[in-house]
TrEMBL record:
<dbReference type="GO" id="GO:0000976">
    <property type="term" value="F:transcription cis-regulatory region binding"/>
</dbReference>
<keyword id="KW-0805">Transcription regulation</keyword>
<dbReference type="InterPro" id="IPR050109">
    <property type="entry name" value="HTH-type_TetR-like_transc_reg"/>
</dbReference>
<dbReference type="InterPro" id="IPR009057">
    <property type="entry name" value="Homeodomain-like_sf"/>
</dbReference>
<dbReference type="InterPro" id="IPR049445">
    <property type="entry name" value="TetR_SbtR-like_C"/>
</dbReference>
<keyword id="KW-0238">DNA-binding</keyword>
<feature type="DNA-binding region" description="H-T-H motif">
    <location>
        <begin position="30"/>
        <end position="49"/>
    </location>
</feature>
<dbReference type="GO" id="GO:0003700">
    <property type="term" value="F:DNA-binding transcription factor activity"/>
</dbReference>
<dbReference type="InterPro" id="IPR001647">
    <property type="entry name" value="HTH_TetR"/>
</dbReference>
<dbReference type="Pfam" id="PF21597">
    <property type="entry name" value="TetR_C_43"/>
</dbReference>
<keyword id="KW-0804">Transcription</keyword>
<dbReference type="Pfam" id="PF00440">
    <property type="entry name" value="TetR_N"/>
</dbReference>
<feature type="domain" description="HTH tetR-type">
    <location>
        <begin position="9"/>
        <end position="67"/>
    </location>
</feature>
<dbReference type="InterPro" id="IPR036271">
    <property type="entry name" value="Tet_transcr_reg_TetR-rel_C_sf"/>
</dbReference>
<protein>
    <submittedName>
        <fullName>AcrR family transcriptional regulator</fullName>
    </submittedName>
</protein>
Length: 195
């Protein structure tokens, strides 16, 4: 990080690495446990991160960057690609979901990243709507609610994001965003062929 002395930058990197390893093992993230794992004093951790939420946010900045890059990719179906990628990132990374659903980020950089992503998503939704690929009344906030809800539901059900069941659910969301009339179900018994 800019402005840190070399030893302070090394300590910060050790703290972040230890926290990342702790999350990968599925352990609860606490600043005291991270200090022990990083072999630094707890005061050193608190000098870099005032609370566990700050550390959590730093751990998922690369996810925000990944999603921002996907949003810039060209193509006529950009919104669909972004929804699918965002779903996969959230379903694979519970910490990313927790940070993105937080009412108020702990760090200014996280808030700026989130605002930038929502603004870009709003442009993609408007672009898709003008091309007739998104139903009226759907905005960026609605897309985020759908994607976050789907990712949470898939993880809660123990489904892998790439599984056939999870992909079917994702397709239902994408089809719902497009709108239009669903195919009418046949009414009454099917006609019998003449004999």
């Amino acid at each position: 990080m800019e402005g840190l002395r070399k030893d302070a930058a090394r300590n910060r990197a050790r703290i972040v690495d230890a926290a990342r390893e702790s999350v990968a093992r599925g352990e609860p993230l606490t600043l005291n446990a991270v200090a022990r794992a990083a072999d630094v004093g707890v005061g050193t951790v608190y000098r870099h991160f005032g609370c566990v939420e700050e550390l959590e946010e730093v751990l998922v900045w690369d996810r925000f960057d990944e999603l921002a890059e996907i949003m810039q990719a060209p193509g006529s179906a950009r919104l669909e690609a972004v929804v699918a990628a965002h779903f996969a990132l959230l379903a694979e990374d519970e910490l990313f979901e927790r940070v993105t659903s937080r009412a108020a980020p702990a760090l200014d950089r996280t808030a700026a990243m989130r605002t930038s992503l929502v603004d870009t998503l709003a442009l993609l939704v408007a672009e898709a709507r003008s091309a007739g690929r998104v139903r009226a009344g759907v905005d960026a906030d609605a897309v985020l609610v759908l994607v976050c809800g789907l990712a949470h539901g898939v993880r809660s059900a123990g489904l892998a994001p790439g599984s056939a069941s999870a992909q079917t659910l994702l397709q239902v969301v994408l089809d719902g965003l497009r709108g239009g009339e669903p195919e009418a179900a046949p009414r009454g018994p099917a006609p019998r062929p003449a004999t």
